[in-house]
Structures are given as C-alpha cells and as structure tokens.
Fold:
Amino acid sequence: MTNKTLSVSAINNGTVIDHIPSGYALRIIHLFRFLHDKNKITVGLNLPSKRLGLKDLIKIENRMLTDLEASEIAIFAPEATINIVNDFEVIKKIETKLPTNIANIFHCLNTKCITHKEQTESVFYVKEQGKQVKLICHYCEKSFERDQIKRSARY
Structure:
C-alpha cells in the first residue's frame, strides 16, 4: 500500500497554475502583480514532476484568471496547466498558448524607444524560436528574451 501526501494543500476557490518551469513562479507572481490583490497565495518551488523533472506551482485563492491572463503567463510557462477551482472542484481548465502580442504589461528596455518619451501603450509581438520566447517591441522593433523584460510602472 502506497501512502501519498499532498505537498501543497487544496484551495476552495481560485486558480491553480501548475507545471511552471522551476524557478519561474516568483517571477510570474511579481510580473503579474498577484500580491496586489491581497489574496492568499500558496507557492510550491522545485516540486517533483514527471513531465519537467522539477516544477513550480502557484495557487491563488479567490482569484479567477481569464483566458487572456493565462495566455500572457504562457510567455513564461508555455506548458502550464491552469485550473479554475470552485468548492474544491476544478470547474474549468484553461489551455495555455502563446499570445501573438501582449500590450500594457511590460516596458521596452530600449531607452531610445518612443515609449519612454511619449505616453503610449507598450506593445510586443511574441515569437517562439525553438524553446526560446522572444518579445519584439512594436515601435522600435528591438527583440528581447522573456527573462530580460520588466513590468512597466505605468500599468
């Protein structure tokens, strides 16, 4: 008889983001400002995974991610599974897929880009090259790897 225990407790209502590549959970929490909602967040880091070897996990109570937010998270966790939970039951599974573009979340790192001089929304095109995800600024056309980008203070 095998005795299994859960590493992370279940949530009553909210969102579970599973199969995040190891090391990306805290970055996702920071970039998408999940702490600003003041909801209870449970984070699992370096958990065992058959698919990834090691994975991270985020559980956000009383916060339901939209399909758009799920696609934005796919920039950092393309193989993530996102489950919406109600009364301890999964009521919706959101399949993540990379968006074609992303607006008003990140700022361009090119200090000569017009987005630093004028009040204009940031827009990046998302390109996947093998296992690498790149974001290309709509305005200056500079390309950045996903690990380089930062959250914009404006949004």
About this structure: The longest strand covers residues 41-49. The chain has two domains: 3-95, 101-151.
